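User: quick one, fold this
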Amino acid sequence: MVWYKENTSQLYDILETSEKGLSKNEVSSRLEKYGQNQLAIKKDSIWKIIIEPFKSVFVAILAAAAIISLLSHEPLDAAIIGVILVVNSVIFYSQQYATSRVLRSLKKHSLQKVNVIRDGSEIVISSIYLVPGDIVVLNEGERVPADARIVHTNNLQVNESSLTGESVPVHKHASTLESTKEIYEQENMVFQGTYILSGTAKALVVETAGRTEFGKIASLASKDNTKSPVQEKIDHLLTLIVIIVGVLAAVVFVLSLVRGIATDEALRFVLALTVSAVPEGLPVALTVIIVLGMRRMAKQKALVRNFKAIEDIGLVTTIATDKTGTLTKNHLTIVESWSLGSTSVLPIMGRTIDVHTTQTDPLDQAIKEGSKTHQKVDKIYPFDLALRMSGAYIHEDNAVYIKGSPEHILALSNITSEQHHKAESAMHEFTSKGYRVIAFGIYSGGKNAPDNLSVVKKKDIQFIGLVAFADELRPEASKAIRAAHQAGISVRLITGDHYETAYNIGKQIGLSNHIDQVMKGTDLPKDTATLATAIQHKTVFARILPEDKFRILQALKKTEITAMTGDGVNDVPALANAHVGIAMGSGSDIAKDAGGIVLLNDNFATIIRAIAEGRKIFDNIRRMLYYLLSTNIGQ
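Assistant:
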């Protein structure tokens, strides 16, 4: 069902509910039909969990060596090998626990108290008892408890970064949408796990539990339990050793019998040969190398959370990185401005908000920081979705200072066609660079403060100018990208930002020289094999949703050892299933649980240093293997 295309009366009919909400009996019936509004966590059987760490080639060899040692009356050797097996199992179980913690965190993230209308009254219930057809009341600061279609709203702004990765607040309304829309374009829908920044709303629950967009993300969050590339290489080598030792043991046994050596003596000799050829010190040596490497990486502000990540990071061939907070500072700032006449737009800009209050909107915060005026504001006009503008009335000037969409402000401005053309040219120049552009103007049409901005008509606004905003790039980002390329590592930018913004960020940091290197989420092929081919020469991906990021990762993993960065709930599937998941230290706890490495300084350059350290660790592992094999075989 395409909920955003249905009008309110159709929605009530489809979900068999009304403005008074569901009855108690109907709720019970729907709970039985749909289940509780919480994520289901798939649990493996206890026997599967117990057996899992003993499936590797090396553990099988150690177990065989322990049995052979017992048969050869060498209990001390058998005990040492047994201890090694126990340590190996403990490490495995601890990593499995960390994996399950990600899923438990996701489940906990979806639980809360919520206001709901039932039998005509507003009551407070646990979100797990929500069902499709319920009407929820949403207020500022609350988390959305389920996917819902808005039926009434009052200046609602929602932070959907947990779902889309886009940190700019989204203005919501209750009107029906006609054409097909992506998630980030569904302005009459709210989604589980997103946050209400300001305003209020009533919304009709349409999906719960695993059927929500958040639930779909969680379903992808189970870690990929395939072996790490390093472990695969070690297992391959050990399999080869087993074959060689097995053949040699058989030959030695036959030759011993031919030379007249007693069968039991020949068997003991062959068993001793077999045990001595097994590098039982390998797990201990590996652990020592990895722990020392973890300490060195921690000094570089890269906190390693599991052994698999540190084993693999030295082999990484491509990095898939987010933009916000990694390549940029996650801080909106003024980058350029354009004024139509002699009046500068920057002093006017500061009069559109109350600079003396705390700003929750990143745009208003940027205006506050860049403001050159501190006049007292007498009345604030919240953002009007229909007019696409907001403003503030200053009694001293008897004027409303307005900010909003350039197209809407220009349409209401008292300027000539030539001035209109100049303003549009400036706007297009800014937007082509991927900037967020806001227009500013002045309304002086009344003697007192108007009740709302709907009084502003065509030709009423004195157009002042445009201001361009952008998320400031980290100064070291370009240098780190160059260092990655010099080390033979490709870098791909994957972001929820607009096409132009993504392209220009990529261009500034040296990832995209041509628009053909950019791909939108809507253009991704559905087939994984086709996708792998299509993205081969793409370096920037725009308007990417969590499921898209997961699919890009799966395609990259076919030919590359991939590191994936992320900081939010939307990144969990990719972080959990990359060869190396790298979470930002300032990110959500769920993301940090899913990542194998946490960047304590949120700096992309730290990833490059961590990879360099990982390569040293891999070289040390290789040297250690050569040493152990040569000494064991020499024995």
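User: anything notable?
Assistant: The chain has 22 helices and 21 strands.
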